Amino acid sequence: MAKSEGLSNRISEFINELYKAWRQDRKTRESQWNKAIDAFLGNLDGYWKPDEAEGWRSDYFAMLIKTKVVSAYAIVCDTILQGGEIPFDLNIDPDEPEELRVFPEGMRKKIRRQLLDCKADRELMNIILSMALYGKGIAKCPVVNTYTKIRYEPVSFAPPFMMANQNQFVRFIPRFEIVSSPGMEYVSVWNIFSDPEEDNLQDGYGIIHREMYSAYDLRKLINAPFFNKRAIKKVLSEVNSNTFTEDVSSLPPSLREIAKRNKVIQYLEYWGRIPKKLLSDYTRKNGVNSLARDFGFNDTDIEGNEFEGHICIANGEVIRLTDNPVGYRPYSQAFWEVVLDSSDGRSIADNLEHDQKMSNGIMRAIIDNLRLAGNVMFAGKSEAFVEGKPKFKPGFWAELSAEVDDVRQAIQQIVVNDVSQGLLAVWGVIQRLADENTNLPKIISGETVTQKKQETAFEIDQRMQNAGKYLGSVIRNIDEGIIEPVITHLYHYNMIQPGNEEIKGNFVVNATGFNSFQNRFLRTQSIKQTLALVLSHPSLTAEARIRPHLEEIYKSLDLKPETFLKSEEEKSRDQQMALQQQMQMMQMAQQKEVAKIQRELADMKKKLSEALMYAEKAKTEKAKQLVGVVGGR
């Protein structure tokens, strides 16, 4: 027994050495992840803790990284998960003989049902967010989960002799059905440790998936296939509140500051290669001689003679050891941006690190400057006042000492100039740089930006196209790195499992996320660009049909065109109303014109009457003058 435990320790020590080495190798990347999550949450700890935020100084956080990450995450999720389903298709293998071909519809429906059971759309959304924030997202598939489904069955409580109206005596009772189904799940990048010399998880030396288990979690594995009951019971007997020894800095952020932990068992799930010389004696001692026979452990001393397996370790104790086919490790990953000659990806947060830091500094400087410029500050001599240092308020009276001839000798105001306008100009430049550094302009999420120099429609269209191509490359990464491997694993699982032979056949898996993106985004942008060109030239407008363009745009947005576009009856009714309004306006205009003419005629009559009266008056005055002259003579 002791010898067997020693052999188990040799295997666990080997895997623990890999775990420690790979954890050390990713320390640099962990620091970037910490910066990213702190920026996303607006935490002022660690890297983002500013010296200028001490005391009265502003600790404002600009949340630039969060805004860009959430915007890109929403667009990618909305594009890929149209209808809430993982986009994929199965096609008949072209090399399959005609007489053996099976239509893939049955297998396609089965996989869709399995994805629905495990809520794969939510898991994929978590993976996409991980990609945008950390640079990569990881999926595990297949993961066989057990679900409890409730089905209701009708039961009649009617007496045997009653035949009519028995429905009133029918009641539905629940029936609980236990179902095992494969699915996919999101795995945090903080819990995966892999060979840093390979960017492909299948080609590297191995993968270690670390989780923290409670005693309850571990006990559930006692009766699971290929698990060592004796080893599990040994671990459970040694578990206590002091068992937890894991370095919390490498745990997911939400698990680092827990005061009382229930999950204290370190559970390492290793998928990869291991030297056969460590396994030969262990397999024989633990009753798995088939492994030694099938994989030829007789030449174990040869360097490089390795075995691909699946090994589970709980608190340093091997509790499961099985073989695994090469190339079928149940993990897949995708990068937000592929970094050439690197085993890791680059995220939006990585691209915005310097912009985020400058944004924080600029906004804090603006707030601090406005606080100083907007508050009254004085410098003076306390002894110049009879009652010492005064406390100013509106209507305040301060008695100066007799020696003070001028109040300016006692106190003067400190004036701080407002320089916020210059800082705001710098802020605008940083925002533009953030758009360029991420290839995600604000306009792609519908936000308009006020600039001194307005962009032309062509410039906006070019930026939208470049952003679309950039997001297209991200969606291709998801197709190839996540969706295609996940669907392939589920397809292989269903082919191996017994039953449903009528739906099985040789199919080719195709991920169609990028096709959805093309149909929804790129195609929509092309239609909008063409429509803008048509509307800009009257000659083209006369040649083109506008309505089909609008219908295609609404369809690409998953909207019904008839909800937004007018029917022929509505357009005819609107035309009639417009014609009636036009006639009413013409009548009103005619009435106004007639009224204007009448006013002008009245004015002319008035002026003519006044002119006649003036002429008559002048004639009378002249006659009086003549009479006076004659009488004088």
Q: Can you describe what's shown?
A:
This protein has 633 residues and is of the alpha+beta class. The protein has helices spanning 2-25, 27-41, 64-80, 105-117, 120-134, 215-219, 229-237, 276-285, 289-295, 348-351, 353-374, 420-438, 457-496, 513-536, 538-543, 546-556, 561-564, 568-632, and strands at residues 88-92, 136-156, 170-187, 192-194, 206-213, 265-275, 306-314, 317-323, 331-335, 337-338, 345-346, 377-380, 411-414, 507-511. The chain has a five-stranded antiparallel β-sheet. Strands 3-2-9 form a three-stranded antiparallel β-sheet. The termini are far apart. The relative contact order is 0.11. The model is unreliable at 289-297 (pLDDT under 50).
Index terms:
single chain, 633 residues, alpha+beta, 49% helix, 16% strand
Determine the fraction of residues in helical runs and give it as a percent range. 40-55%
Whole-number radius of gyration?
41 Å
Question: What average pLDDT do the residues reach?
Answer: 84
**Within the largest sheet, what's the order of strands?**
4-5-6-7-8
Structural class based on helices, strands and sheet pairing: alpha+beta
Q: How many β-strand runs?
A: 14
Segments where pLDDT lies below 50 for 5+ residues?
A: 289-297
Strand content: 15-25%
Distance between the termini: 166 Å
Give a short overview:
With 633 residues, the protein is α+β, with helices and mostly antiparallel strands. Helix content is 49%, strand content 16%.
